[in-house]
């Protein structure tokens, strides 16, 4: 079937898992499951920004290095980073050393604090953009991601284009883009049905 892959363990998964063994645990345990933790949401937005122009596998294999470099993506701590921290990160071979993307994470950490002050949590803001109705399978953008991207940019966020935000929404469970027939799709649907989006 379209979009499916029969893995060596006999489990039918989304076909993109075939590209790398690194993807399987991420696909089975994280991708498409709803998240309300502000730190995880900020981390994913940041890593999606780093992915721009690169493969997700590149970022995924470096994720623990990114977490160490950015203090676990605690945006309160990252907001205090200065030029010394930027220079330190530019010397860190364990991450993607791109000044613009590094500076964007620091900027976005400050903007995240502003959002928390306004909405109570980053999660309350993010989930207010949950799409209604079906999104075409494996679309690269959606009206919801375009709207959230536009609003974030208006608030001063960087590296948050509609494609980046759409990938973020897929990963954080706002959109269930597991292929029909994927063994994990129903698990993600069940998790979403039981999930209570935070209000802000």
UniProtKB/TrEMBL annotation:
<dbReference type="InterPro" id="IPR011257">
    <property type="entry name" value="DNA_glycosylase"/>
</dbReference>
<protein>
    <submittedName>
        <fullName>DNA-3-methyladenine glycosylase I</fullName>
        <ecNumber>3.2.2.20</ecNumber>
    </submittedName>
</protein>
<feature type="binding site">
    <location>
        <position position="27"/>
    </location>
    <ligand>
        <name>Zn(2+)</name>
    </ligand>
</feature>
<dbReference type="InterPro" id="IPR052891">
    <property type="entry name" value="DNA-3mA_glycosylase"/>
</dbReference>
<feature type="binding site">
    <location>
        <position position="14"/>
    </location>
    <ligand>
        <name>Zn(2+)</name>
    </ligand>
</feature>
<dbReference type="Pfam" id="PF03352">
    <property type="entry name" value="Adenine_glyco"/>
</dbReference>
<feature type="binding site">
    <location>
        <position position="178"/>
    </location>
    <ligand>
        <name>Zn(2+)</name>
    </ligand>
</feature>
<keyword id="KW-0479">Metal-binding</keyword>
<dbReference type="GO" id="GO:0008725">
    <property type="term" value="F:DNA-3-methyladenine glycosylase activity"/>
</dbReference>
<keyword id="KW-0326">Glycosidase</keyword>
<keyword id="KW-0378">Hydrolase</keyword>
<dbReference type="InterPro" id="IPR005019">
    <property type="entry name" value="Adenine_glyco"/>
</dbReference>
<keyword id="KW-0862">Zinc</keyword>
<feature type="binding site">
    <location>
        <position position="182"/>
    </location>
    <ligand>
        <name>Zn(2+)</name>
    </ligand>
</feature>
<dbReference type="GO" id="GO:0006284">
    <property type="term" value="P:base-excision repair"/>
</dbReference>
<dbReference type="GO" id="GO:0046872">
    <property type="term" value="F:metal ion binding"/>
</dbReference>
